[in-house]
Amino acid sequence: MTTKLFGTKVARVEDQRFLRGQGRYVDDLLTDDPRLLHAAVLRSPHAHARITDIDVSDVLDVEGVLAVWTYDDLVDAMAEPLPLLIPHPTLTHGRTQYALAKDEVNYVGEAIAFVVAVDRYVAEDAVSRIRVDYDYLEPVVGIAAARAADRLVHDDVPGNIGARMEQETGDARAAIADAPHTLTLELDIERSACTPMEGRGTVARWDPDTSRLTVWSSTQTSTGVRGCVAAKLGLDLAKVDVITPDVGGGFGVKINHPWPEELLVPLAAMTLGRPVKFTEDRREHFISSAHERAQVHHVEVGFDDDGRLLGLNVEFWHDHGAYTPYGLIVPIITSTQLLGPYKPLNYRVVFESLYTNTVIVTPYRGAGRPQGCFVMERTMDAIAAYLGKDRTEVRGTNFIQPDEFPYEHGLVFQDGRELTYDSGDYPASLEKLKALVGWDEFEQFRAEMAAQGRRVGIGLACYVEGTGVGPYEGAHVHIETSGKVKVATGLTSQGQGHQTAFAQIVADTLGVRFEDVEITTGDTRKMPYAVGTFASRAAVMSGSAIHLASLRAREKALRIAAEALEASEEDLEINDGVVSVRGTDASIDLGTVAVLSNPLRYAFDEASKAATQFSVGDPGKPPVAEDDEPGLEGKDFYSPERSTFANGMHAVIVETDPDTAEITILKYAVVHDCGHLINPMIVEGQIHGGVAQGVGGALYERMVYDEAGQLLNASFMDFLMPYVTEVPTTIDIDHLETPSPLNPLGIKGAGEAGVIPSAAVFAAAIEDAEGFPITAMPISPSELFALRLEHADH
Ligand code: MCN
Question: Is the pLDDT of residue 616 over 50?
Answer without folding.
Answer: no
